[in-house]
Every structure is written in structure tokens, then in C-alpha cells.
Specification:
The chain has 9 helices and 19 strands. The protein is α+β, with helices and mostly antiparallel strands and 474 residues long. Strands 1, 2, 3, 4, 7, 8, 9, 10 and 19 form a 9-stranded mixed sheet that branches. The chain has a 4-stranded antiparallel sheet with strand order 13-14-12-15. It has a two-stranded antiparallel ribbon with strand order 5-6. β1 and β2 form a beta hairpin. Bound molecules: flavin-adenine dinucleotide. Flavin-adenine dinucleotide binds next to α1, β5, β8 and α8.
Length: 474
């Protein structure tokens, strides 16, 4: 294939230039695409071959710059855990992260506490805690549910995760976005990445989707799901921002008059949580519901809305409550609790959680309550009545980390295969880390034994997960 735009291609078609060290990709971009709210994504290729004002064909040849046993897409807590675990197993691992730091919601998103059970999550998470502790950057351990939120310093977490990845030999690519995938009959062969060097390909034997949004599964054309069944609406997003305490003499209202909406009463605030953030500061979390993290324009609107809301909330505290607080900074990205999820061999349900489900192929465990807030309300309102939020410890089966439509795709973290309410518990960082470690172990085993994850002896995966410090009892 050559580099010039091909005419006559009528469907999305990834062409593999075998043996030449280059891959070519053909992408159709339609302006009439609908926001993905349901299951299968739109077929982006339909309009290609008939260039019009609705679609263009973009095609280029690019180098295969990276080759790995295991490719991990997304460097949140799940992705870091997966990459660290796979590397510990002896696999050659590449981790792709679109931001400047790994950690996802837990660093760039400004979240500063590990919810759920923070002991017995596996050796990767144990090392995260131990390294944070060396900085004096994590609160002492308390078992769940007494300690349901273990506070840490998210700036320190960013350096801890980075150093752990490097010490285990993971090839880390920052400022690098996963763009597309090449799959043949359910088998992924390459990812298309775009960093500052431009589009490049990554070839791997096993892939783990830790993007939080099922970006890899979606690009491969595998089935995905999102939100509540009736309309696809997601759990609300929240924005984290940070204030510093100043002396009464330095205190002032920072927000110019009539620039943003005015909030005069506490009950008119959106759901607002004020967290400790070291001496002399607080982290503040505000709820921003009713946006779609999987739609470019909706996510943009959410970020704009969140920063405006931040100004209104800041103004309320400074002007109405006379708090001696000044704005320090806002997280560079809004926090997304729920995005697209992969449909796996097994979809974990809220009924499984309520029953404290146990599985022969269990590889992770959750304990956190059903922290599912109403998708269409900015107050502290739950989907379920408060007396129905608690769940007993439950197990997560290996099958819910296996993309149903893929042969060599695992998934971990908040885009794993679960319904919305099951996710509202399992999305906490401790459980995401546990899933990540399990997916990393399984991907490395598959790559090193030249088989697919589905062909592994699940009991063997489970044994390895347990031997690496994960407590699975439910
Ligand atoms: C506001 C808020 C508060 C929360 N509070 C808590 C709490 O107190 N305690 C707790 O334990 N949990 C909390 N959670 C939940 C928890 O933070 C997340 O569910 C968890 O961190 C998810 O981890 P993850 O690795 O699955 O996903 P993410 O953290 O979303 O990580 C995904 C990573 O993939 C990267 N990525 C995405 N797409 C691409 C791409 N195309 N190419 C390259 N990289 C990509 C992202 O940049 C990101 O680094 C909170 C969540 C939110 C939003």
C-alpha cells in the first residue's frame, strides 16, 4: 500500500504491510457521528470512498516503533498495577499514557484517598503504599469499613508510580495517546499511538485496556456498554480544586462581581465535599452531572461547566462564609467515575455484589458500598435508598476482565465488565489496582506461554494472584 489517499475503499479497513516494518491505517471521520450512548459504536467507515462534506479518508504509513509482550493502554491506578505486575512476571511491557503523569484520576484528577480495603490488595498496591509511606505521604492503615478513605498526597503518588514503573523495567510513553487498533478476527496485532513524534505503531502479543473508557476495545470494534440501561446516562463527574488557608488580613473575595452565578445559601451549593489536603489547605470536590465522558463536545462542556461551578463555590465560601481561603489550583482534568465499559465473558452485576458472590475464577475482591449517585442530580442523592448501599465482600471473576469479542484483550479498572451499580463499588482505586495486578499477571502468562488469556488455567492465575499478596476471601 502506498501513502497516498486511496479511493474506492468502502469500509473501515486497516491494512497491514507485512514484513516491511510499517503499518498503514485508513480512518474515516464523519461529522454526522452520533454520541455513543449504546452498545456498538457507529461504523465510522460507511461514508468513506465517497468523499463528501460528511467524511474524509485519512491514511498513512507509519513505523512500528515499539514491540512488546504486553501493551497496557492507560496509566491510571489499574494500568500502572497491570504494567508493574506483567513486568514482575518477566514480560516486556509498554505502558501508554496520554498525560504527563501516570495515576489517572488519582493524580491528574486530584483524588486524594484510597477507598475500600487498602491492605491485601496485592504486592503492587503494597509497594505503592510502602513508597508513599517513605515520604510520609499516606495516612495510617485502618481496616475497612472503619477506614473507608485512606488519605494520601496525590503529587507524591505521581512520582511514586513513575519510579515503580521504571524500577520494574516498564517502557513508559507519556504524552502519548492511543488512537486506534488493528485487529484481525478478534486478535489485536497493533495499536496506533500518537505522541509528539507523530503517529507510530506498537506491536504486542497481549493487550490490556486500562483507559477507563474502553478506548481500545471500542477502536477494535468489540462490544462496549455505558451508563444506565434506559438512557446511557453515567454516574456524575466531579471536579477537584484546591485552596490554601491565609491569614485574616490576606483573605478576600477573589471572584469579580457578576462574572459568575452567585450562591447565597449552603443548600444551593452543588454536592461539595471538603477534604484535608496537608497543613494549611483543603481539597474541594464539586459534582458535575449529566455529561458524557465519551463524547468530545460533551466532555468539553463538562470541563467548562466545572470551572465555572468552581468559581461559584469559591465565591460562596469567600464572600458568604468569609473563609480565609484563596484558590491554589484546579485539577487539569475533570474526574470521571464512569465511562464506556467492555462487555466481557462475564458481566458482574449488582446482584452478585449483594449476594457476596464467589467465583471459581476469582482474581480480585471488592468491599466498598454501592457509591452510585444519581446521574441527573447535582445534590448528594443516591440511585438506591441509603439502607441498600452496603454490600458484603464480593469476588470479581477473571472472566469479567476478558473482552468477550477479543482473543488477546484483557481489561482492568473502571472500564471492566460490570453493570453500573456494580461499578459504583468496584471502581474505587483499591479494587482497580487489584484488577490491574490480575490482568497483568494473566497477560504476561499468556504472552510468555504463547497462548490466549482465555486458554490459561484460571486456577493457576488465581494461585499466582494470591501468591502475590491479594486477599480474595469473600
Ligand atoms: C471525583 C472522583 C472522586 C473519587 N474518589 C475516590 C476516592 O476517594 N477513593 C477511591 O479509591 N476512588 C475514588 N474515585 C474512583 C477512582 O479514582 C477511579 O475509579 C480509579 O482511579 C480508576 O482507575 P483507572 O485506572 O481504572 O482509570 P483512570 O484513573 O481513569 O485512568 C485511566 C488512564 O488512562 C489514560 N487514558 C485514557 N484514554 C487514553 C488514551 N486514548 N490514550 C492514552 N491514555 C489514555 C488516562 O489519562 C488515565 O491516566 C473517585 C473518582 C472520581 C472521578
Amino acid at each position: 500500500m502506498d501513502d497516498s489517499p486511496a479511493s474506492g475503499i468502502t469500509k473501515r479497513d486497516f491494512l497491514h504491510a507485512a514484513g516491511c516494518g510499517l503499518v498503514g491505517t485508513a480512518l474515516a471521520v464523519g461529522t454526522g457521528c452520533s454520541a455513543a450512548t449504546g452498545h456498538h459504536d457507529e461504523d465510522r467507515g460507511d461514508a468513506v470512498g465517497n468523499p463528501s462534506d460528511k467524511a474524509v479518508l485519512w491514511q498513512r504509513r507509519m513505523p512500528i516503533r515499539y514491540k512488546a509482550d504486553v501493551a497496557v493502554i492507560g496509566g491510571g491506578i489499574a494500568g500502572v498495577s497491570a504494567a508493574c505486575a506483567a513486568a514482575r512476571s518477566g514480560a516486556k511491557v509498554v505502558l501508554i499514557e496520554r498525560f504527563a503523569v501516570t495515576g489517572g484520576n488519582m493524580t491528574a484528577g486530584g483524588v486524594g484517598s484510597f477507598c475500600g480495603e487498602s491492605a491485601g490488595q496485592g504486592e503492587v498496591f503494597d509497594e505503592i503504599i510502602a513508597r508513599l509511606d517513605q515520604f510520609g505521604a499516606v495516612a495510617p492503615y485502618k481496616p475497612y469499613p472503619d477506614g473507608d478513605a485512606r488519605i494520601f498526597n496525590h503529587e507524591i503518588l505521581a512520582i511514586v508510580l513513575q519510579e515503580m514503573l521504571l524500577s520494574r523495567g516498564v517502557k513508559l510513553l507519556l504524552h502519548t495517546r492511543f488512537v486506534d487498533a488493528i485487529a484481525d478476527n478478534g486478535r489485536l496485532t497493533h495499536c496506533i499511538l500518537c505522541g509528539k513524534s507523530g503517529p507510530e505503531a506498537l506491536c504486542a502479543r497481549q493487550f490490556i485496556d486500562c483507559s477507563g473508557e474502553a478506548d481500545l476495545a471500542r477502536a477494535a470494534g468489540f462490544e462496549i456498554m455505558k451508563g444506565r440501561p434506559e438512557d446511557g446516562m453515567q454516574l456524575p463527574m466531579s471536579m477537584m480544586f484546591f485552596i490554601r488557608h491565609v491569614s485574616a488580613g490576606d483573605a478576600r473575595a477573589e471572584v469579580p462581581e457578576s462574572r459568575f452565578g452567585k450562591i447565597e445559601k449552603r443548600e444551593d451549593l452543588p454536592m461539595t465535599s471538603v477534604w484535608p489536603n496537608g497543613p494549611g489547605g483543603n481539597a474541594i470536590k464539586i459534582k458535575i452531572p449529566m455529561f458524557d465522558s465519551g463524547d468530545t463536545e460533551s466532555l468539553t462542556a463538562a470541563e467548562i461547566r466545572a470551572r465555572r461551578r468552581m468559581m461559584e463555590v469559591l465565591d460562596y465560601y469567600q464572600r458568604v462564609e468569609k473563609k480565609p481561603w484563596l484558590l491554589n489550583h484546579c485539577s487539569p482534568m475533570i474526574g470521571v467515575r464512569e465511562g464506556r465499559r467492555v462487555v466481557g465473558d462475564y458481566v458482574l452485576t449488582v446482584d452478585d455484589l449483594r449476594a457476596g458472590a464467589r467465583f471459581d475464577d476469582a482474581v480480585a475482591r471488592g468491599v466498598f458500598y454501592l457509591d452510585g449517585h444519581k446521574p441527573d442530580d447535582d445534590k448528594r442523592t443516591y440511585i438506591l435508598p441509603k439502607d441498600q448501599l452496603a454490600v458484603p465482600p464480593y469476588q470479581i471473576p477473571f472472566r469479567s476482565l476478558l473482552a468477550r469479542d477479543g482473543r488477546n484483550l484483557l481489561v482492568a479498572g473502571r472500564c471492566f465488565s460490570a453493570d453500573q451499580l456494580a461499578l459504583s463499588s468496584a471502581r474505587v482505586s483499591t479494587t482497580c489496582a487489584m484488577m490491574g495486578q490480575a490482568a497483568g499477571i494473566a497477560a504476561a502468562k499468556s504472552a510468555l506461554n504463547d497462548c490466549d488469556p482465555r486458554d490459561l488455567d484460571y486456577a493457576d492465575v488465581r494461585r499466582e494472584v494470591v501468591s502475590r499478596g491479594a486477599r480474595l476471601e469473600a
